[in-house]
Write a structure and sequence with these properties.
The protein has about 800 residues and is α/β, with parallel strands linked by helices. Helix 26 links the parallel strand 24 and strand 25 (about 690). The longest helix is centred in the N-terminal third of the chain and has 30 residues, at about 30-60. The two termini are about 10 Å apart. The relative contact order is 0.10. It binds ligand 26Q.
Amino acid sequence: MGQVTAKILKDKILQHLRGSLGTYEEKASPKAWWTATAAAVNEYVMAGLTETQKTHSKHDTRAVNYLSLEFLMGRLLSNNLHNLELFDVTKEALAECGQDLTDLLEEEPDMALGNGGLGRLAACFLDSLATLNYPAVGYGIHYEHGLFEQTFRDGRQIERPDSWRDYGNPWEVVRPESNQTVMLYGYVETKYEDGKHKKIWHPGRTIKAIPWDIPIVGYAGSNVNILRLWESRANDFFDWDVFNAGGYVDAQLEQAQAETISKVLYPNDETEAGKELRLIQQYFFTAASIADIMRRYTRAHGKDFSQFTKLIAIQLNDTHPAVAVPELMRVLMDLHDLNWDDAWDVCTNTFAYTNHTLLPEALETWSVGLFEKVLPRHLEIIYEINHRFLTEEVEKKWPGNDEIKAKLSIIQEGHGRRVRMGNLSVIGSHKVNGVAQIHSDLVKSDLFPEYNELWPEKLINVTNGITPRRWLKACNPRLSALIDEHVDKEWPRDLYKLKKLAKLATNAKFQKAYMEIKYQNKVDLAKVIKKLVDVDVDPNAIFDIQIKRLHEYKRQHLNLIHIMALYRRLLANPDYDMAPRVFIFGAKAAPGYALAKDIIYAINKVADKINNDPSIGGKIKVIMLPNYRVSLAEKLIPAADVSEQISTAGKEASGTGNMKLALNGALTLGTLDGANIEIAEEAGEENCFIFGLTVDEVKALNEKGYDPRAVYHNDSEIKEVLDWFDTDFFTPGHPGELSSIKRSILDDGDRYKVLADFRAYSDAQLKVDAKYRDKKAWAKSAIINTATMGKFNSDRSMEDYVERIWNLKKYPRS
Ligand code: 26Q
């Protein structure tokens, strides 16, 4: 790419404004300016894409195919500008047109095709794969509606549909010529031919899958890979049959049903819905993706499948695409005539599976009846996989042990037999990874111990990571400039370079510059808060931030109960000595998760009361921001002093917000859970606030019998705060509106050990307070956090996957 000047860009932008959008400088809306800018930038994106595609097909490269039901991409303009190194020059070009780039970036809707951590991880991985020049394709669903938009009405969460493509999406290219046909329902015929049984699946319905390609721009001259998202459409010939038989209305119905498949992202995270449409979504995108992979492979190699596993790796992002295992078996055997053993070899050498959860309610199972109705041939194949596995492998290792067989079987017996997708994924893959060291250890010891005995090399760890391009360079320009100055400009490629900052951690001048940046970021966030919830917050206060999906195991209610305890202390003693604190939350609750919604309501009600109580002198503010999403995270993270990572030990597989916050200089207030453990190892425990029960202590407590009521009766502060939930203090005239939280703790056994950890949490909060008043000590710890987060670069995660699982080579653009 030759030197791109502001003049060149300005001309391109104006050309798109006039030539594509039919408007002109004096008249154009901000949306039009944004669209024209994106179109101008897209010319460079597409040039990189073409070059990369050429390199890949010239070398017949081995590639990883990342199958995920979620890709939480967020906004792309700022990201693409940074990765193309065109940010400053575009800012200049727009300034010449009287436009401010920072304002225009706000015109872009988030691409919110995911719920939370798992979806954002997939997006960070794509960024890193392109940056490292690894051949990779992301496969997912082109949802018409991404994760719902959240508003609050009288403090309660209201969901509204997200329509991210209402004004079009300049980044995507539809490729109708690469469509696939996906079959559903029907029955299986067995034919006897040439001395062999042949299986023929006669589908009850067929659906068309249309691919939309989104270019993924690597950093600074790297590759441009593709994210391919499938949209469902009615199959034309199917419609016409019905239509011609006089069934015009039926044909419309068929079409509506077909198009329902890619309509909406399921908004649950960590829970299983068991809905037919969800299974169809899983199969729809998996089957289309495998057919696409097959098309590419057979174009180069015909029906010779001996090279398949050399060229193709498929990663299953959790069990959501696990039906890929029987699907690839079906394609190889039924369509390409491979025998079972050869097909099975191909499968197990192709697939690898990432586990993201240990929560029992989040482990996917499907009723055998539903599975058989939707995917009759796949159920047959699953039975055969299971039979061979149980008789050939399990029986050999544990002869006559029916208990182990029942546990390892893909089919869960009992009332209503079910297909266990986790077991299917482990059996069908050559590697299974957890997402942080402790999580992977628990996958081995607690979730899949027998599989680990059977295949000791299969279960491994790859600790998660985040892309430093989005989560530092783009979102925190002030800190990035300081790092450019004191490290060098290459740090976004090699985050370990930040280590150099550790030497400056006690340098008074550097501390001042670093903390001044934090202060300015807090000033910016204070403006956002004012605009969104109309509350004034003081940038000198501690900004204490908990941002993540709402879930009991993440314990936003532990944070809330502590806030209420602090408030009681202030009411009892207006001189109670504490540094002013702003507690900030961002969280969406799954629409069907009643207690999670009650916790949001409670936070809003407590916030109302506290923010409007003049008697506490503004020492506490509580902010619940609506519609937490990637673009809001980008404004919160640079301004955080404290990062709340307070899940019950053993429950949070990794967490990735913890990494983003620490990288931007927030001190972690956290339990020894997920990646917090590794963050504390890197930063040093003295630069974090670690508290609470460990995984082993949680286990011991469960074994001995945990009694939350005993804690309640022995700690008067806890008792008083919990009893507050039953009054109308925060909900005037409506006592009991907040009682469900108390009940979940006292009557339902406090599954997530909120009371067991409360005192340790409160003590840790006192240490946060004390340290914040020691400005130098705080600055030192904050700087060391930034300096030591090199490990959590998703580039490092990708290199680990390549080394331990994928075995890819780099192909830089020639
Ligand atoms: C399942 C069935 C039906 C409908 C929805 C789902 C579903 C959807 C999303 C189940 C789970 C998810 C998402 C899980 C998730 O985000 N897990 C998080 O993954 C992160 C990346 O590894 C980790 O850092 C987090 O610890 C983990 O909670």
